[in-house]
Amino acid sequence: MRFELRETRSTALMICAPVAAIAAALVLSGGLIALAGASVIEAYRFILVGAFGSRSSIAETLTRATPLILTGLAAAVAFRARLWNIGGEGQFLIGAIAVAAVGSELTAGLPSAIAIPILFVVGALGGMALMLVALGLRQGFQVDEVVSTLLLNFVALLFVSMMVEGALRDPMAFGWPQSVPVADNATLPRLMERTRLHAGLIVALLLAVVVYLIQARTVFGLQSKAAGYNAGAARFAGVPLGRTLVLVACISGGLAGLAGAIQVMGVRGNVTTDISPGFGYSGIVIAMLANLNPLGVILAACFAAIMFIGADGMSRAVGVPSFIADVTVALSLLTMLVALFFTQYRVRW
Amino acid sequence: MELIAILGSEGLWEAVLRIATPLIFGTLGALLCERAGVLNLGIEGIMAFGALIGWLAVYNGAGLWTGLAVAALSGALFGLLHAVLTVPLGLSQHVTGLGITLFASSLAYFIFRLSVQIEGSPPTIRPFQPVELGPIGDIPFLGPVLSSQTAPTYLAIAVAFVMMYVLFRTPLGLAIRMTGENPHAAEAQGVNPVRVRFACIMAGSALMAMGGAFLTLSAFNSFFPTMIQGRGWVCIALVVFASWRPGWALTGALLFALVDAYQLRLQSALEDAIPYQLFLMAPYVAAIAVLAVMARRARVPQALMKPYRRGER
Amino acid sequence: MSQPIALRLSGITRRFGETLANDDISLSLRRGEVLALLGENGAGKTTLMSILFGHYSADRGTVEVEGRALPPGNPRAAIEAGVGMVHQHFSLAENLTVLENVMTGTERLWRPRAGMAAARRKLMSLAERFALRVDPDRRVGDLSVGEQQRVEILKALYNQARILILDEPTAVLTPPEARHLYQTLRGMARDGVSLIFISHKLHEVMEAADRVVVLRRGRVVAERRPAETSKEELAELMVGRRITRPVRAPATPGDVVVEARNLSVRRRGATGLHDVSFTLRAGETLGIVGVSGNGQSTLGQVMSGVVAPGAGALTILGRRITRADVPALVRAGVGRIAEDRNHEGVVGELTLWENATLERIGSRRFSRLGVIDRAAARDYTQKVIEGFDVRGGGPDHRTQLLSGGNMQKLILGRNLIDAPRVLIAAQPTRGLDEGAIAAVHARLLEARAAGAAVLLISEDLDEVINLADRIRAIVGGRLSPEIEAEEADARKLGLMMAGDWTTEGVRDAV
User: Fold this and answer.
1) How far apart are CA C404 and CA C381, in angstroms?
2) What is the pTM of this model?
């Protein structure tokens, strides 16, 4: 048996890859559900019901998808330029805490139309700053950004913990470690009555389109793509590699930080150390499932959100631990990698 | 003054060896994979799974050593998965490794929730007990430090020496190093790089899982999610610090554990003056600092992260 | 020639996808014979040798060593049968010592201890017997290219190779080193070793081989003894038709457009430049010859704006160049052909239009306010494709799918279509077949005739003699004095490339 590079990559195959990958992941997770003693069909039915069964569950699924779209975009943008930003988690946290710091008092007196954009920028800047640390370590000291961003995730979490127990502690929380809440003027408007779905979804969708247009239509998009595929050739063609990487890092870190900001302003109102159930890590899976396509990220994020929200309901109904959603999402990354391989290679016997 | 007095306390050095053990296992495991040319970022998840499965085996009545062996076996299986994806398929080692980490850790939590009913405090086992050292235990300072250690700690140190010998003194070690430097050359000399990589990734992953299992079978007596807390990533950094040498890996893990044990004691000494989180950051910041200093000088295995395909260069 | 047959290949056939790399190839080698395998890139030489050595297995056909069939696809079996291979790109581990490189795989894997002392003795005795001096404890990465090749040969001999295969063994050697290598090989043949070497250099084949087998498009097309043939016949057999490379007409040099004075550049991991001075006028070609690794890469990169000039002064088209600034050079009208097509010339994963316009994508012609004008970019690419006969895909195809020759035409096209005033051509025909080489040469001559100043950096002596008006050699980052093309021949250039600048005829031009 040997693998041969395909000469052409058909679009059909590229579209099939994530579908096949998700199907394979669902089948494999089905094995685990069966192992847990539940009916597989039943469990998946409950997942769908949990995610789509009612107006409020749909809203909840979309609410969960919002930060995932943004962290997915963050990973996709960076990976396309071969910048392995695995620090979405930490950047999300820094973005969130930055918004809590600024949004509770400093912008409290401003009208929402001004306060909200300012806080978006603040969150994005927080994520950017953390990503730029990793980029600086890579450019200046040749430190692999995968390891540095992973380690910085823990630093960021501890920093948030320090803030919510220290400088930004909410005095009204009876000693519970949580940050001061952002002021009301910073709360994102609701999209649906009596649900948590907020305008952050619109922002995330718009940004996906913007990132898509940047990548497909602009000089910077082409240059960052060239730099990612072949840095030597890009340099020879006059692509400013350093500047391009810095910009990519800013966009990537900024998107992850913005995700944190939006989660605070749209859903939580304040920051606790468990504000992110792995949004940053899921973003990596989502980016890969989307094959780094910014529009694909929207769909991939919805898949992950369906799994996470649906699994909660399913868990209550049939007693399979809701961690099955994490397992499925992680598996879909592995199956997607294999599926992508077969879009590039064919097997010869 | 008190800060220096801590350095002389037996308690500190007892803790150093205990904290170092999972790092020694993990670093050696990662080092073995990388010597054969494959980065294994599955380490964090493999450690988590090893911690769970080793503990679960003992919780269900198996012996402690059986638990450790079960953990090693599970590590080898995840290693096999990583090997299949990165060696014959040649997938990105970064992304595959992260996928393994996400998969192994979520699977561990899933199995934990499935098999253990949690009411109140988490269930516990009776962990490894300190090894009786006889007369050695009477040596001042060294005696008490050593006699508070459990058998897996000595095993970890022994593995470091064995790996040192195998890598640098045996034909097998030469074949492994050649595979990590230039698999084409290895192949041309009749060494099968695919087999070498499979074997190294599986053995290395088994060591990682044993490092995780040490946490639940010796350092603590129960399992809880997020207990690995980035130890795997620290090990990846320690491999660079060690310049891919097992002796230095051992030294690095001990140094690192010293930093960690010291900061834990500083925390209690300086409780009010400085937020404890700053101390907890120390290990991660130290790992990054180590990378910043060492990454440029390190003599990286030349074929690290380069997939090997026969006849393709 | 009554020696027994050492090696016999019969009916070897191997297909890769649509291409038939080896088509029913049969040949035999006698003990103590030196056989040359001659053919262009892509003729199937390397595939054939990889099959022989077990890196690939053949779809059909057998390999017999001393009468016994080799199992297919098993390098270990090939080694044990006494076949050794010296690859063009050395198969060495830079971070291991000479001894470790040689020893790998020679002992049972599970032996509890490596027999270092015995291995060292054996290596030293081999080194002495075949006059291949090496220090067993040096790190291979610290050795010169010539020394590394010695390690490669010793590695094969250490494995008791009686049949030695060398793939393009002189590609990285200076002419004197190459001559020395062939003497060593002849000595080995007298000692009973049978040798096959792969080459596309006609003069080497004529000098060093007992017998020449010519391969074309995966088939054996002829077999000759050097005494019974000529370079011209071999060339025609190899290419399959008579191809004449175009030759330059007399130059009409204009103003000085490039001037380098005492240029020095330090590089890490590559040879830099030391005190390099030259001038280049419009409408003429300056040829720089050299053995690879002597600083020509750095020279090409500095001139292309990729690497900043260090000490000294560089003026191109009246601008003082002080830093690496590709866009400024491109704007000024400097065309640049990268030394390595795949690593610097194009990004394989991008489309043709993206590659054609990448280096000037920021100009108003192809973008406004950072947004790409895709129609303009496609039109431009279509013009390049048509004007330079690029075959294998339209503007929206992935560049990877082009053949090397067509990729090079795309690169030439994007540089020449706007009539550059200076053209930096680094190794413009490396790895191309004869037909494509002739096409590239014609384009370079056209550019010169149109008034461009051409800096031609090449390892191909014939290319430089045919195209350049003046020639210099680059050795260890220094430029030799200059000779006129009329005075140049392969022997004289060979001496210059070896660093011998005192010979008669090389006049002191500085």
Assistant:
1) 18
2) 0.91
